[in-house]
Structure prediction request, 163 residues.
Amino acid sequence: MKLVFPCEENHLKYELHRLCEMFVPEYDPSELNVRVGKGKYSYAALAFLDTKELVIYPAYHYRHPDDLKSTLLHEVGHFAYCDDPDHGPGFKMYYDLLSERQKEIDEEVVPSSYKDFLYARPVRANRYEYICSFCDEIFFRKKRVSLKCSKCHLEMDEKAIVS
Prediction:
């Protein structure tokens, strides 16, 4: 299915429920308020755990329409499995569950790599990757910077990305 814009909230809710029925039937997304955001070319979506709100950004999905389904499943993980805005160990377990269930589902939704499931595609090419040698947290930047890990507070190792 190609995404047609303007994207309507009713379509997003329908798609969210359909995907949950296929991949995570144990979770009922009815409690989530789904809305369409404005701007944010670099964000696919945001999950607001305290208000149980899921915001989808059409500006991103105009550029990457095939990412909508995996974006919806990604955001469900924050509500259903982690209750955490970060991507900790529970989120990786959620991805592994989706990957296992994807084998039994004909419709290709779940990306083949955890890294692709975690991050929205950059609008502009990132030139540097920063990795925490302790916890493997990864950040991408367009410019060379000095970064400390948000979890461990250790200096992150820099790796230039060849493009």
The chain has a mean pLDDT of 86. Residues 9-118 form a domain with the Zincin-like fold (CATH 3.30.2010.10).
